[in-house]
Design a protein that fits this description.
The complex is a heterodimer. Chain A is mainly α. Helix content of chain A is about 75%, strand content about 5%. In chain B, strand 1 and strand 2 form a beta hairpin. The chains are: A mainly alpha, B mainly alpha.
């Protein structure tokens, strides 16, 4: 068994074990949380072990090649030439690392605050972790689809069981939206299989396709990935899901699940249908800019902290899609690929960075919610007076979200804006608006929640964060700083893959087809 | 017609079964009510014997004909029979505690169930219109009697009456179509029909006859607009009978459709394929939309069945061999899912907690976490979410459709699946997210719990390793 298989199956089997232990140690769910230590401890051990086992992916990674590494390949469904085919390249490896890094943090975040069905809670997150890694590591398209859809099951349960008041509405909406988008992707994948005789994504990359085929396939993929990113106007499930999900669910949703949309564009849409991507790039850029500008304004008026961060996520993910599709205007204008690669790496860095920052912000809201049981901005004010250590960290993450240089939030956005400049002034101008808007809604949030005089007695009696909460926030803060001050290692890791993708998208697949 | 000993080998499973049923019928006369388990054990023993005979034939890749070419034992027949026997045995396992708790534990249930199985097996092997019709009638008459089995229940009687009247009309329709086809082609044998139909494809009477036959087949499947009996029968019949009606007979209906349409009328495919497509699309849309509006779980599952039938018909219309394989795979997976879902209701019912309203399942996780998990697996499988078997069934049908160039139908298929997901999610939601309710699995015998767990986990097993079942279906349809 290779590293990737272990990373997929260890958390899944560990999750099942946690479930089994939870059953035997407490026949029925208890409300005090005591006596259930064995299961959550096991869950933490499994997730930390997964992270440690994923470190070789980073240390042994060969950054000089765009080929798949740590490959595992064996036949799975012979009749359809479907393979159990795993591998990572410069795009997927950082996302796998992000997943393994964040899962222990998410488990720690729910350590005390989850009081009902604790074993199931920790088990669901572990199983989810395995499936998410499967999505990033699958090189076979059907295997990818199986992981992609299977992931909905634990997420559906996480929001539905441990969510807020309107959790059922939110989770059904989440499930159906994603399901609806995905089924079109399935049709596209089957079509590509019938055309190529294989489900290998790498074979799909080589497959010549006519313009009409590419357009339809691109749109089918768009249905799946645009929902996941989410792009305006199919974003409406996200605020609901985020608001109702438990803290851990929001973190995973924002930090990893949304990345799958961007990853899907990189892995499928761009290389499989490069001509259609170019053809429709204007539409994609338009949708991205709407997300950046319009959703930024929407975020400004939110009364609910989680909702505000959810809209902020949509706006920031708009940068990802912008960075991916700005390639064609650049090519049209300058004919050089240097800006293309910058846009692509900017998009990738933005995804990783957003994983840290949005995750951290949801963790911060979780910290407050655990104490006050309110997400309303109006219920807060002057938190800094009672929770100084927490306030410092929250302000730090807010500044990162606003794109302060020195934090990871700056790097990705700056690269995408630079790339946009090569495409044209107005692209860059509109994209830059986010720096103002992002600063506005984030800092205003901080001002209303953290600063000012103590708003009410509830805030006055707040207790500062515990060592556990401190640990998880500091860990994420470390990631944000590392990526912001010294992004070179991660940029190096993905550079070969980025260059490869840049050449892929410039090669027309129509010529060879007809 | 000349008979030979070879006939016996091709028909051996049916001969064993028929003789066994007669023995059971006589033995049952002398068994007291308190010892009725003897009939049950005898029935299970008989099924094991039939399965042993079937497996003994082995993975023979040639077709053996009997009765002058009117009876065939080929891959399709063998696979269908094996799964039908397993399905009926599973149904019996589920049913016994329920029947005992209702003081309905009579030998007739097993005898009728076994006769129904005999009908399914004849359907699977029938290679002549007449033999198929006889098989269908053996099955149908057993089903009518089974639905009316609880004679003190007026609802059962009403359902049986409806089923019988509509079923008789459908049988008549089918027979009328067969007589027209026979009148024009001069043959009943499927193999000869194939060449005769291909030669006279433009004769109008032939098309009329085929149209009647398609209507009859659609009724037996329960496809829209011949679906009216399905919700009423599923709701009105005693729960174990609903379990029976919802599982094994679908294999028989598939055999009927494959033999008559895919094999016999291949030359007129351009005529019946659009009809199947229309039936399928209507079933998918009406089944899934109507299921949303149901508050009774059995009616909901009935409409869900109708939508699954739509998918099976889509596979059939996509044509050979991929489409037929896909339809076969879908039917087998569906039978496993339906056995689990109805078996779950039977299991709860055996403790006197008849589940009628969806709301009865509310908060089940609090009392029976393990079986909530099993039911969640079943529902996600029905919704077609990987990695459960239901997904691969849909995937294969979609592949066959796209391979045959029916993009539009594939899109209808996936869109209606998304609609369908809604009501399966509702059951999961009620069981898993809500609190309250009283239904529980406490006190249910271990064997029943074991069967249900195996049944549900099988879907996960097929989902993780779909290769074996896919290969089996490919083998079954290889000769068509």
């Amino acid at each position: 068994m290779g590293t990737l298989s272990i990373l997929i199956w260890l958390p899944i089997l560990g999750g099942l074990l946690v479930l089994a232990i939870g059953r035997t140690s407490a026949g029925k769910p208890s409300s005090d949380g005591a006596g259930l230590r064995a299961d959550r401890l096991l869950a933490l051990v499994v997730s930390v072990l997964s992270f440690l086992l994923s470190l070789p992916l980073w240390t042994d990674f060969n950054a000089a090649t765009a080929d798949m590494q740590f490959v595992e390949r064996m036949s799975w469904i012979r009749a359809f030439n479907v393979e159990y085919y795993l591998g990572v390249d410069g795009f997927s490896m950082p996302l796998v690392m992000l997943t393994t890094f964040l899962t222990p943090i998410v488990l720690l975040a729910g350590w005390d605050s989850v009081r009902v069905r604790t074993a199931e809670y920790f088990a669901a997150f572990l199983i989810l972790e395995g499936l998410m890694i499967g999505v990033f590591a699958a090189v076979d398209a059907l295997l990818f689809y199986v992981f992609w859809e299977a992931m909905l099951i634990p997420m559906f349960i996480i929001i539905g069981v441990w969510g807020g008041e309107r959790r059922i509405y939110a989770t059904v909406k989440f499930f159906l939206y994603t399901f609806l988008g995905s089924v079109f992707m399935l049709i596209a994948l089957i079509y590509l299989y019938l055309k190529s005789g294989s489900y290998s994504i790498l074979v799909f990359h080589q497959l010549p396709l006519s313009q009409a085929e590419q357009t339809l396939i691109f749109l089918a993929f768009l249905a799946a990935f645009a929902v996941k990113v989410p792009m305006w106007p199919v974003h409406t499930w996200l605020p609901d899901a985020h608001v109702e999900a438990p803290t851990g669910g929001s973190v995973i949703l924002a930090a990893v699940l949304l990345k799958m949309g961007g990853y899907g564009f990189i892995r499928f849409s761009l290389p499989i249908a490069p001509d259609a991507s170019g053809h429709l790039s204007a539409l994609m850029i338009f949708l991205s800019l709407v997300a950046v500008v319009y959703i930024g304004f929407v975020a400004l008026v939110q009364q609910d902290m989680k909702k505000l961060i959810a809209y902020s996520s949509i706006a920031h993910m708009g940068f990802v899609t912008l960075g991916l599709f700005i390639a064609w205007p650049i090519l049209a204008r300058t004919g050089s690929t240097s800006g293309v690669a910058m846009g692509l790496s900017g998009a990738m860095l933005q995804m990783i960075s957003h994983g840290f920052i949005s995750g951290a912000l949801f963790l911060c809201v979780g910290v407050l919610y655990d104490r006050m049981h309110s997400r309303k901005i109006a219920d807060y004010g002057g938190v800094v007076n009672t929770m100084p250590r927490f306030a410092a960290l929250m302000v730090f993450f807010a500044l990162a979200n606003a794109g302060l240089p020195g934090t990871s939030g700056f790097v990705g956005e700056f690269m995408v804006i630079l790339a946009s400049f090569k495409a044209g002034f107005w692209y860059a101008f509109l994209a830059s608006i986010t720096l103002i808007l992002g600063a506005a809604y984030t800092l205003w949030l901080v001002k209303r929640v953290v600063f000012g005089a103590v708003a009410n007695t509830a805030v006055a009696s707040l207790v500062d964060i515990s060592a556990r909460e401190m640990l998880i926030l500091v860990l994420v803060a470390g990631g944000v700083l590392w990526l912001g001050l010294w992004p070179a290692p991660i940029a190096d890791v993905m550079s070969a893959s980025v260059d490869h993708l840049a050449t892929q998208i410039m090669q027309s697949k129509i010529q060879a087809g007809l | 017609m000349n008979y030979s000993l070879m006939d016996l080998s091709a028909q051996l499973p049916e001969i064993v079964l028929a003789s066994g049923i007669c023995v059971l019928l006589i033995v049952d006369l002398f068994v007291r009510d308190s010892a009725r388990d003897l009939s049950y054990l005898l029935a299970i023993f008989l099924l094991a014997g039939v399965a042993w005979v079937l497996i003994g034939i082995g993975p023979d890749s040639t077709a053996h004909f009997a009765s002058g070419g009117s009876y065939v034992s080929d891959g399709l027949a063998r696979v269908l029979k094996l799964f039908a026997v397993t399905a009926v045995a599973t149904v019996f396992l589920y049913s016994r505690p329920w029947l005992r708790s209702r003081k309905l534990h009579l030998g007739e249930y097993y005898v009728l169930g076994l006769f129904g199985l005999l009908g399914i097996m004849v359907l699977a092997s029938g290679y002549s219109l007449l033999v198929s019709y006889i098989g269908l009638e053996i099955l149908s008459l057993s089903l009518y009697a089974m639905v009316a089995f609880d004679r003190d229940s007026s609802r059962s009687a009403e359902a049986a009456m409806k089923y019988f009247v509509l079923g008789a009309i459908a049988s008549g329709t089918l027979l009328y179509g067969m007589s027209l086809v026979y009148g024009i082609t001069g043959t009943l044998q499927i193999g000869e029909l194939q060449t005769a139909i291909a030669a006279q494809a433009d004769v109008v009477g032939l098309r009329v006859g085929l149209g009647f036959m398609v209507a009859g087949i659609a009724f037996k499947f329960g496809a829209v607009p011949f679906h009216m009996w399905v919700p009423d029968v599923y709701e009105g019949a005693p729960t174990p009978v609903t379990l029976y009606v919802g599982t094994a007979p679908k294999l028989g209906a598939l055999a009927l459709a494959v033999r008559i349409l895919s094999e016999g009328s291949a030359g007129l495919a351009s005529f019946w394929e659009p009809m199947l497509a229309a039936l399928a699309v209507l079933s998918l849309i009406l089944g899934n939309v109507a299921a949303i509006a149901q508050t009774n779980i059995r009616r909901m599952l009935a409409y869900s069945t109708i939508s699954h039938v739509g998918f099976i018909l889509l596979g059939l219309m996509a044509g050979s061999p991929g489409g037929i394989q896909a339809a076969l795979f879908y039917t087998i997976v569906y039978v496993i899912m339906a056995a689990g879902a109805f078996g779950f209701l039977v299991m709860l019912g055996s403790q006197g907690q008849e589940v009628n309203d969806l709301d009865d399942l509310r908060g089940l996780w609090q009392r029976s976490p393990w079986f909530t998990l099993m039911m969640v697996l079943l529902m996600f499988s029905m919704a077609g979410v990987p990695p459960l078997a239901g997904f691969y069934a849909k995937w294969w049908v979609l592949s066959a459709l796209l391979n045959a160039g029916y993009l539009g139908l594939a899109i209808v298929g996936v869109l209606t699946s998304v609609i369908g997901a809604f009501y399966y999610l509702r059951i999961i939601r009620l069981m898993l997210f809500d609190n309250g309710g009283t239904v529980s699995t406490v006190g249910i015998p271990l064997d029943l719990k074991l069967v249900l767990s195996v049944n549900a986990l099988l879907l996960l097993g097929i989902g993780l390793f779909p290769d074996r079942l896919l290969d089996l279906c490919a083998y079954a349809a290889a000769l068509i």
